[in-house]
Amino acid sequence: xxxxxxxxxxxxxxxxxxxxxxxISNVSTQAFANNKLFFEVGLPKNxxxxxxxxxxxxxxxxxxxxxxxxxxxxxxxxxxxxxKTSTDLDIKKVDGDSICESVTVISYGVVECMTKxxxxxxxxxxKVTQDGTDYDCVNSDLTLCQYE
Length: 148
Description:
By secondary structure, the chain is an all-beta fold. It has strands at about 1-5, 10-15, 20-25, 30, 35-40, 55, 60-65, 75-80, 90-95, 100-105, 110-115, 125-130, 135, 145. It has two domains: about 1-55, no CATH class; about 60-145, Immunoglobulin-like, CATH 2.60.40. Strand 12 and strand 13 form a beta hairpin. It is elongated.
């Protein structure tokens, strides 16, 4: 079984008789209409071609470096689901205040933030927001999403 999104092959993570899980990477947008799911032996019995639209949401994994200057620092966040066409993307403290002067998606899942010239308390937990929706750290080690 294989999956293509916008003509880019995606990696199958696991496949069973009832479920297929793919790792989605190297995509240009967060919403897809041109998807193709291929089965090794054709279509499942009594099923037509699988057609579906997909939408990916950001997953905040980590930030680096974890500390910076009060004058501003360029930090990089790993955010699978963020694409160069992502709009209204920001990195904020959990209280909702943005820490970024500017935000740029460098490549799929890699977000660069120039922090504001301000003091940020030690071990401040961060989140990613897009279009008014918050995405908390998904890493089991929450310290990887902290900044000071």
